[in-house]
User: Fold these one by one.
Assistant:
Number 1:
Amino acid sequence: MERNPTPYKPIILSPLPPVGEAFQWPPNIHKPLCLPKIYVYPDNARMGEFQVTETPHTGTNHNAEHILLGQLRDKQSSAYKNYVTEDPEQADFFFIPFLGSKFLADCWYTKGVKGDCDVDAKYAEPMMNYVQMEHPYWNRSSGSDHIMTHPMDNASLYYKSKDRMQNAIFLTTVGDKRVASTIDGRSRRYSDIVIPSAAALLDLASKNPTEWLDKEGHPKGGVRDIFVLFAGRYKDVKPDEAYSAGVRSILYNGLDQQPDYMIAEKFENERYTELLSRAKYGFAPQGYTMDTSIWEYIAFGVVPVVIADGITEPFEDDLDWDSFVVRIRRRDAHRMDVILRSISEEEYERKRQALWYHGRHALLNHDAWHLIVRGLCRKGLLEGTRTIARNHHEPLNVDTLLQ
C-alpha cells in the first residue's frame, strides 16, 4: 500500500471515459498507418561482385540487413504480401539490397584482413552507381524514398562514399539522442528508423523460446529463480570509459558476487538458453549502442534492466518501452541492486506480461517490418492512405488489418 505523507485522506474519482482508437497510445500496431509499396532492387553484378557471390554469414550480431532483405524477398512472408511490388513504377519506397556489414564481417573475420577492406571501391561505390546512374528513381526524389540498412555500431561511417547515401532512409541499430553521436553522424534521429539487432542465440543458433517456456512465458516445469542475468564484456571496463559510459564496470564491483545473480562474459549456447528461461531480470547496459542481449531477454520473457542514457529504442513511437523494461539512469547505476529488490512482485509481473504480449513485437522475426513501415508512413507523410498510385493516394480503410 502506498504511504500518504499528508494529513488528508486521498479520494478516488470516477474513471475517465475511453478515448477513440486514433487517440490511444500505444496504438494498435496491427492496424496500419498506411499501406505503401516497396520495390526491392534485384541483385546485379554491377552492384559489385560481392552482391552475386555466395558468401556464408560469419556469426556476428549484424545480420539484421540479411534478415530484413530476406523477409522482403520471401513471397510467403507477411512483409512481401503486404508491402512488396515487383513494378518500380508502382512503388512508394525503394529498398537497396546493400549488405555492407556482411562484406566487412567476411573480410575481417573470415579472411582476417584489417582496415576498410577496400569496401568502397569493391562494393559501396558500385552499389550506389548502379542505383543512382542506371535507374531513374533515386534522382526523381534525390533518394528520399530509398531505404538502406546499416546494422553496425558506426552506421554509414564505415564508407568513404557515405555522402552519396545520406539522402536515403537508414534502418539502423544506432539510436542515440546524445550530442556526440549526432555530431559525428552515427545517429540521425529524424532521418533514420531504429531497428533491432540480430541476436546470436535467436538468429544464428536458432534457439526457440517456446521449447523452454509455456504460452504465457513461464518456464516449463520450473520457476524464474535467477534474479539478474548478464553475459557480455565487463571485467576490463573502467568507470570513466566511453564504452558503455563505464556502466558495465559496476558488475565487477560486487554485483557479480551476489548469489542470485548469474554474470559471465560468455555462456555456452545451451547453458545460456537454460539461464534465460530461469531469469527474472536481464542487465542491459549500453555498449557503444543498445546492448544486443536485450533481444534475447525480450524473446525469453526476461524483463530488461536498461541503463543507457539517451539511447533511442527501436519503434519508440509505437511501443511503450517503459511498460516492459526497468529504466535506471547512469547516475543511479550503483544502486541497481537496491532498486530492483524494491520492485514488488505485482509490478514485476505487470512488466513481464507487457513484455511477453507486447514487447516481443519488436523482434526481427516478429513484427519488425510492420513497425518499420509505420515509420516509413510518418516520414513520407502518408498516414491514412493506401499508397499504390504515386499521384493519387486512396484513403485507407480504417478497419484494415495486416495479413
Note: DSSP finds 13 helices and twelve strands in the chain.
Number 2:
Amino acid sequence: MPGHLPIPSDFSSHVNLIVTPPPQSQAPVNVLILLHGLGDTNASFTNLGKQLALPETACISLQAPTPLPFDLGGFHWGDDIIFDQETGHMDFDTGFSKITGILTSMLRTLVDNCGYQPREIMLFGFGQGGMAALTIAASFDAELGGVVSIGGPLPSSIASSGTSSSKNRTPVLILGGSSRTLVTSDAISKLGAKFQFVDYKKWPNKVADGMPRNRDEMLPIMQFFSRRLRSRAGVPEGSIEIG
C-alpha cells in the first residue's frame, strides 16, 4: 500500500516543517526531506520543493532546530557554534547529534505511521544541511532512497567512527564548486569509505559551493532523482525530458 501524505501533526510539535504535496493532486509514493543551509530558514527550501514539482513526491522542508546567536537571523543544524579565529566564519562541522535524533524520529514516523518504505525516502541538503543529511543516512538502520548533498561533506564524527565490514548502501550524490569548495578529494575519499555508491559532480563553471543556477547545474540532480524516485503511475503527462 502506498504511504499517505504526511502532515505536520504526524511529527513532534517541537519541529518546524512544511509539507508540500505532489503536483497535480498525485498520490505520494516518495518523500523528499529538504534541509536548508547554515543561517537560512525552511522558507527557501519550501519554494524549492514547489519548483522541483517531482512526480508522486511529497516534500518536507525542515527548519534547523537552533537559531543563530547575536541576532544574526536564521538557524543552524550543529550541536554548537564555533567561529574560526582567523576568518571569523562559522564552522559547519560542530556535531550533529541533536538533528540526528530529530531526523531519526521523522524517518521512523514516515515508515511506521505514514506507510513508507525507507527506500522511498530521500534527503536533499545544502552546506551544513547536506552534512546533516549524510549523518542520518550513515546512521539509519536501513537503506534510504538516496542523499543529495551540495557543498556538504561527511562530518568528521562520522568519518572517524571506524570501519564496518559492509558499506552503507544508501546512494549519495555530492556536488561542489571547482575551487573554493568543501567537497575536496579527501572528502570524497571519506564518503567512499562509508558509502558503497557515491557519485561526485564538480561544477566547472561555479567556483564556490552554491545552489544550482541553471539547467546544466541542475541536470545531475534531476538525473539522480529520475533513477531513485519510485513511480506507480508511469511517466506523467507534461514531464520534462532530461536525458
Note: Residues 238-243 have pLDDT under 50 and may be disordered.
